[in-house]
Amino acid sequence: MKIYFSGSIRGGREDAELYAQIIEELKQYGEVLTEHIGQMDLQEEEITDEQIHNQDMAWLTASDIIIAEVTVPSLGVGYEIGRGLEMKKPIYCFHRTEKTSAMISGCKEIETYKYDQKEEIKALFSKLFQEQ
Question: In which residues is substrate bound (predicted)?
Answer without folding.
Answer: 4-10, 19, 80, 101-103
